[in-house]
Amino acid sequence: MSYAYLFKYIIIGDTGVGKSCLLLQFTDKRFQPVHDLTIGVEFGARMITIDGKQIKLQIWDTAGQESFRSITRSYYRGAAGALLVYDITRRDTFNHLTTWLEDARQHSNSNMVIMLIGNKSDLEARRDVKKEEGEAFAREHGLIFMETSAKTAANVEEAFINTAKEIYQKIQDGVFDINNEANGIKIGPQHSPSPSLPSSSGGGAQGSGCC
Amino acid sequence: MNDYIENFDAHRGLFSRKSKEEEEDQGWKLFGRVPPKQGVAKPPQQISHEYQQRNALQNNNRPKKSDIEVMSTTALILENRPQNLPTKDPEEAERHRLQYEAMIEAAKKKEQRDLKMKKKHMQQQLKQEDQMLQLSKRWANDILPNWELTKRTKKTRDMWWQGLPTNVRGKVWKLAIGNDLNLTPELYEICACRAEDRIKQTCDSDTASVSDCSPEVSTSNREASVELIKLDISRTFPQLCIFQKGGPYHDLLHSLLGAYACYRPDVGYVQGMSFIAAVLLLNMDVADAFICFANLLNRPCQVAFFRIDEAMMKFYFQTYEEFFKENMPSLFRHFSKTNVTPDIYLIDWIFSLYSKSLPLDIACRVWDIFCRDGEEFLFRTALGILKLYEDILIHQEFILLAQFLTKLPEDISSDSLFKSIELINMNIDKKKFSQILASKKEQGKMEMT
Prior knowledge:
Number of helices of chain B: 22
Helix content of chain B: 55-70%
Shape of chain B: globular
CATH architecture of the largest domain in chain B: Orthogonal Bundle
Oligomer: heterodimer
Radius of gyration of chain B: 30 Å
CATH topology of the largest domain in chain B: Cyclin A, domain 1
Number of strands of chain B: 4
Structural class of chain A: alpha/beta
Number of domains of chain A: 1
Order of helices and strands of chain B: HEHEHHHHHHHHHHHHHHHHHHHEEH
Distance between the termini of chain A: 9 Å
CATH topology of chain A: Rossmann fold
CATH architecture of chain A: 3-Layer(aba) Sandwich
CATH class of the largest domain in chain B: Mainly Alpha
Number of strands of chain A: 7
CATH superfamily of chain A: P-loop containing nucleotide triphosphate hydrolases
Radius of gyration of chain A: 17 Å
Helix content of chain A: 25-40%
Structural class of chain B: mainly alpha
Shape of chain A: globular
């Protein structure tokens, strides 16, 4: 399937907050109660429509353990959007947000859209971080915020799609230079200005089974 | 080894669907030998009774030579015509009867065919098991008692390549990994006890340790890694259902990882370790598993990766790429063009020694040869995987490549993988992996200064 744009996303946050489960819910619409842990990085992809345009999301799902930070840092490069995830039932995952944010800001392009996500909203009884706290943190740091549940799928679509809308808006406003791939945005094959992207013209157009 | 596979199957059985026999009063019946359950819902009982009688008759009439027992089929047959429909004219009824009989006959034939196939398959399996038994006898009687003399002979190495029989696997691994660190089961006990104390402490002061949020990174890190072990154990081979809370191996895995974090606080717990420890535990007792684990993680490649020594990891990746280029030049170019760098897939493969990415039985065979050939075999395996799927990979764009390599097909066949690994040449201009790695390190040093 052809697409107008391709956005690269990166999902970050402490280990065990549900990054892989969010991705699985978004790409496959299913929930795995016990998911394998992620070592290094895993990938997902899905096509969405914004403003009548087909947009392909290429999602990098990273390992959360502190030790892997130095490796995952290099994966920020060329990301247009980031989902920064914490677990509303574990306060320490919320406390670590500042270091994640520093990392993200430092190693990514300054226009990268960051969505803050408080995951596991279905576990209300075990809640350890108030929704207001998440909202306050997002406001303070200029992030979009949402509470989600990868289990019930609540807000999962919205989280991924609203991030894309924000990126799309930035393109419309001319904030993103779409001809510079370092911004994490690629123009779809059929839109590509003929001389600049010779390599992507063939393979990119083939639809992927996963989408 | 067989235990956990059985265990897994047993669990599967637990969740198998239950038949819904209650709802049929219109005469629909699953064709097959219905077990003569008494007290099942009343209306269809008569139908099934008649049906059984007829079936029994047919069974008796069947020629004796077919000792194949047809268990059931999945064909759905209308036994009695629903009463709300008008009666059929006799001609049509007769035609339908014939059709019905033909259908049953066809279904039976298909079943017999399937059964024959099954039997053949079983015979093959028996033959394989027999071979394995012979092999394991040779390992146990001839090779293991004279390990120092036999381990390097061509005969042993050839047999090794075929995969180790499960009952000697743990023993061979233990001998091959060795114990350069001179660890003892007593040391394991001490470390395990200390780990348990620490876990208790962190549990007691749970709220305190989180809220004071000490700036001292090293201690908070270590505590976090103890916490992390708990979180990760349930995410280690979740499909086997034996390491999860309440499962038979849960506490052992917890103790082993805790003990290692105590033994090597400078390394602590790093994700990926739980998979290695789990595979060892499935093949030997916990003290031996600890000793093997610690020695294995003390090897240069594992030291580089588990301490996230980026410079060293880079040298390994560069060396790997040399062999990639040598063995599959066009795929190598395709990977470079699409920006698929080795870290994207190799990190997972190396950290878990393939136990997370390949089916467990195949991963164990990789471990067998890793024990025989050392770290270069890990990279050779990676190239073998690429070689096996070369025709698919060469046409794919970045995202499909990345997805494929970080989630390999589950139906990968052990024999074809090992055949493709065999094709990978681990010499470049008569230089071995270790020599090229050494020269990469040398180059790196030169660039530093």
